[in-house]
Amino acid sequence: MLKEVRSTKRDDGRFRRWFSDEYFDLIVWYEAAKDHVVGFQLCYDKEGMERAFSWSLDKGISHSRIDSGEASPFKNMSPILVPDGAIPFEELLRQLEVRARDLDKDIVELIKKKLNP
Q1: What global pTM score does this model have?
Q2: What residues make up the domain containing 51?
Q3: Which helix (H) or strand (E) holds 38?
Q4: Nearest CA-CA partner of 61 in 87, 36, 35, 37
Q5: Residues 6+ apart with CB under 8 A from 110
Q6: Over the stretch 47-66, which tens digit does the pLDDT of each residue have?
Q7: Mean pLDDT in the chain?
Q8: Which label site among 10, 32, 58, 81 has the fewest CB atoms less than 10 Å from its CB?
Q9: Of 45, 77, 47, which Cα lies nearest the Cα of 63?
Q10: Number of domain units in the chain
């Protein structure tokens, strides 16, 4: 079940909320007003091949695989997003339905809207 992990507010008034469970990480960005979402990133399949479904007002939708870097203790690069293929819309919607029961309904509805192909 997704639970809020952290919220942060920047000096310019922008606000970010982060929710997490064993399958998803969800980061939601807000304009200065907390009720105006300007983007989100839904990272999923964290214990498998982690990928990210992202949306923002200025860039639209993107889908990426998360390359976690090198496994070597001598050289470990920061995770980066690399382009990925098909988006498993139905699976993401199904998982969201189960895991996002306690989230703000507005956030869930926005994500569902963007996930509907």
Answers
A1: 0.86
A2: 3-115
A3: strand 37-44
A4: 87
A5: 37, 40
A6: 989 999 999 999 999 999 98
A7: 89
A8: 58
A9: 45
A10: 1
